[in-house]
């Protein structure tokens, strides 16, 4: 089956202006040549440390930012090429669930108003039909209908995230970018929200890009995982293969910090501590972006940028140590 989402050579550069004349003096390469696909009904986890560009990828593919370059095909449409009106018509298909439900919900609107807003904007449903849809959505995300006329402040963080999810579902999307959807929530309710997202995916056939720095949670929810470092993808692998045996040295270091859920295997993996700081995305190193910190760095790494290639069936890695699988 064709992937629902195809991202090719995506770049998102933010210009830097400096000096008295505010001259353009360079670019922050927040996303620098990123490619991946997401199949229908799949969850692709996108992980990496804060500042690696993962949130920017999510915003650029939904065109909340205008990408600098690259192709993003979502459900058959080249999103960066859409006119303003075509983009507006496309919005229902592709939605976002934000990290901070507090900041993304208008405090002066009731829950019903918040969930109804996309219906007002994109449908010609009658008042009663909209209300029925709002109630249906509240049921789907586990919010009591009796709360429809309350304001966001009356809710807990987990309930507010349910409101945000209900609004994202209002127009029957196919693809949802979940940007750190549980990072702002108490640990005790994180699993509830993740389980809700999984349940909705199954019932509604949704496709997710799940952006998170929480590698244990990503292990739970993702089918495949893309690991980002300094604006680029280091590795994309099926979840189990990645967590069992990461191929890219950065993925190896990142995952070495994740607690091993199987106690019989605890201690099998050594924690890898990386030295040095992540370089600035305004001035990434020559060659491999990871060469300044990689425990396995070789001379070629400081000269030649490794391309993301298929290292094993279904696994793509950008590292000179990894040879492509034969055939
Ligand atoms: Fe390390 Fe070189 Fe591989 Fe980059 S290309 S991850 S520096 S071994
Ligand atoms: Mg980020």
TrEMBL record:
Q: Does the keyword Nucleotide-binding apply?
A: yes
Cellular compartments per GO CC: plasma membrane
Organism per entry: Gemmobacter lanyuensis
Q: What does the sequence similarity comment in the record state about its family?
A: Belongs to the ABC transporter superfamily.
The identity of this protein, by name, is ABC transporter ATP-binding protein
Which cell locations does it reside in? Cell inner membrane
Positions of the ABC transporter domain: 5-255
Alphabetical GO biological process terms: peptide transport; transmembrane transport
The record's principal subcellular location, in a coarse class, is: membrane
């Amino acid at each position: 089956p064709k992937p629902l989402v195809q991202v090719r050579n995506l770049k998102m550069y933010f210009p830097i202006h400096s000096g008295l004349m505010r001259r353009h003096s360079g670019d922050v390469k927040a996303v620098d040549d990123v490619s991946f696909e997401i199949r229908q009904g799949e969850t692709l986890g996108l992980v990496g440390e804060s500042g690696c560009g993962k949130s920017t990828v999510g915003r650029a593919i939904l065109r909340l930012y205008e990408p600098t370059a690259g192709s993003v095909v979502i459900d058959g449409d080249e999103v960066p090429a859409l006119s303003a009106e075509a983009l507006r018509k496309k919005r229902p298909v592709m939605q976002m669930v934000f990290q901070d439900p507090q900041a993304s919900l208008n405090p002066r609107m009731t829950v019903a108003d918040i969930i109804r807003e996309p219906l007002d904007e994109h449908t010609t449903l009658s008042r009663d039909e909209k209300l029925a849809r709002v109630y249906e959505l509240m049921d789907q995300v586990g919010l009591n209908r009796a709360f429809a006329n309350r304001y966001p402040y009356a809710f807990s963080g987990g309930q507010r995230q349910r409101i945000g999810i209900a609004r994202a579902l209002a127009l029957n999307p196919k693809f949802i970018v979940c940007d750190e959807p549980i990072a702002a929530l108490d640990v005790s309710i994180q699993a509830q929200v993740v389980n809700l997202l999984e349940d909705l995916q199954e019932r509604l056939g949704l496709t997710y890009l799940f952006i998170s720095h929480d590698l244990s949670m990503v292990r739970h929810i993702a089918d495949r995982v893309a690991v980002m470092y300094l604006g680029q993808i280091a590795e994309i692998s099926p979840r189990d293969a990645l967590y069992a045996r990461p191929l890219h040295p950065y993925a190896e270091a990142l995952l070495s910090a994740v607690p091993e859920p199987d106690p019989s295997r605890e201690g099998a993996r050594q924690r890898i501590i990386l030295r040095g700081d992540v370089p600035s995305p305004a001035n990434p190193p020559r060659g491999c972006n990871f060469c300044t910190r990689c425990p396995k760095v070789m001379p070629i790494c400081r000269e030649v940028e490794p391309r993301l290639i298929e290292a094993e069936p279904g696994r793509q890695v950008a590292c000179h140590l990894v040879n492509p699988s034969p055939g």
